[in-house]
Design a protein that fits this description.
The protein is an alpha/beta fold and about 400 residues long. The chain has 18 helices and 13 strands. It has helices at about 15-20, 20-30, 50-60, 75-95, 105-115, 135-140, 150-165, 170-180, 180-185, 210-220, 240-255, 270-275, 295-300, 320-330, 340-345, 360-370, 375-390, 390-405, and strands at about 5, 35-40, 60-70, 100-105, 125-130, 165-170, 195, 230, 260-265, 285-290, 305, 335, 350-355. It has a 7-stranded parallel sheet with strand order 3-2-1-4-5-6-7, with helices on both faces. A 6-stranded parallel sheet has the order 10-9-8-11-12-13, with helices on both faces. The longest helix has 23 residues, at about 75-95. The protein is globular, with a radius of gyration of 22 Å. The mean pLDDT is about 95.
């Protein structure tokens, strides 16, 4: 039985960990792997909460370790966490002698790489790249392009690309950019395994998205006989708030009874004034923060879904989880072209429509195109099963790259 440590620079309670970390770990446990998880917690736990989390994960076959996440003086805090995390991982290697260190994006992988340098035992290092982290920060306006933080992150990235024994990316586009030799062989130029694993979802969660739940949700919203368009996710940065509001404005013009459902963790004040400026009254929309467990139920009440993300270099590596969730609920998607593999996903499968510019004409055309997709719900679900199923796609590909790592590459 292989033993692995998964290093994650997020807190165990965060929705991303609940939907895009723990499910994959459970899939690896099914494959016979012994898993430990290291997280970084931004705040304390309420009474008994930490023990409850530990017991739940233990029952799923996952040993959980946590460290304090530091935020104040951002760059210095991150550097401190990297050093503290690397020291923890070094001690873990000495005690447990894991076969694989699995780093989720750059910072955790750096912890693993530093710890391995300082250890006699040399586990395999899996760099789960996910997105183009340095470019994400510049594209979102967090770091100045070409600044010292960006240059430092790129130097670290180049070193990790040399140090790692295998890699995971989210999109075919990212693989073509980073590892063009791997398209046919599945290996890079020096024989290290590459796996493309998009953001997958547990399709059993979406079995609750039924005709009955649709009727109930629409009745609760007061939208039983209305066209309901939904947006799930954050606003700001590379998530296009104004463009999303403009789409809803055109939808209101084309379909006067339209209802906007916004499920977001962001401050409602970011999007609500924009909807009101565009003709949405208090009974025409809902802006709600919901847990991942509630997402399928609310999506079941919609007729179409929106996914607008800034088209930029870093987003070629992006696999928006919302798109997988939309399709799993049978919803056709209105998305902008040029983000990850979305052109292929929607363009070749007929499960929505792509817009190539953010204009009134493009929004109107997309709304009319969606209206022509009669009976597309089952087709959307089938594409979700083929492209984003947690077990047969995500779990199997993670198990596959673990097998390849343990066999010393390709």
């Amino acid at each position: 039985m292989a033993k692995s440590l998964y290093i994650c620079y997020f807190g165990v309670r965060e929705p991303l960990v609940q939907t895009q970390v723990n499910p994959y770990l459970r899939e690896l446990v099914k494959g016979g792997h012994e898993l430990a998880l290291l997280t970084f917690e931004p705040s304390g736990f309420r009474d008994n909460e930490e023990a409850e989390v530990r017991d739940r994960l233990s029952n799923e076959g996952i040993d959980w370790y946590s460290m304090k996440y530091h935020k104040r003086f951002s760059a210095i805090a991150t550097a401190w966490d990297i050093l503290a995390g690397a020291w923890f991982v070094r001690r873990f290697i000495a005690r447990q002698k894991p076969d694989i260190l699995h780093g989720r994006v750059h910072v955790p992988t750096l912890m693993g790489a530093l710890a391995r340098k300082l250890s006699r035992h040399k586990p395999k290092l899996l760099f789960d790249i996910r997105g183009f982290f340095p470019e994400e920060y510049t594209d979102a306006g967090v770091w100045p392009e070409g600044g010292i933080l960006y240059r430092s992150a790129k130097r670290v990235e180049r070193w990790l690309l040399k140090e790692a024994d295998g890699f995971v990316v989210l999109t075919e586009k990212a693989r073509d950019i980073l590892f063009p030799q791997s398209a046919d062989s599945g290996c890079d130029a020096v024989g290290r395994p590459i796996e493309v694993i998009p953001c997958c979802v547990d399709l059993t969660r979406f079995a609750s998205a039924t005709a009955s739940s649709r009727e109930k949700v629409r009745a609760e919203l007061g939208a039983s006989d209305r066209i309901v368009a939904v947006y799930v996710g954050a606003f700001g940065g590379w998530y296009l708030t104004r463009e999303t509001a403009d789409f809803f404005a055109v939808l209101k013009k084309e379909k006067p009874s339209a209802f906007a459902m916004i499920l977001t963790q962001s401050n409602p004040g970011i999007i609500e004034p924009l909807l009101r400026e565009r003709g949405y009254g208090s009974g025409d929309y809902i802006i709600k923060r919901v847990s991942p467990v509630e997402i399928p139920r609310y999506l079941s009440g919609a007729d179409m879904a929106v996914s607008f993300i800034k088209k930029c270099y870093s987003k070629q590596a992006s696999s928006p989880t919302k798109n997988a969730e939309y399709l799993a609920c049978g919803l056709p998607v209105v998305a902008n072209a040029g983000v990850g593999d979305v052109n292929k996903l929607i363009g070749e499968n007929g499960v929505g429509t792509l817009i190539h510019d953010f204009s009134t004409e493009a929004y109107a055309a997309s709304i009319n195109a969606i209206a022509q997709l009669n009976g597309v719900g089952e087709q959307c679900r089938e594409v979700a099963r083929r492209e984003f199923d947690l077990g047969s796609v995500g779990g199997e590909r993670y198990r596959n790259i673990y097998r390849r790592l343990l066999k010393n590459g390709c």
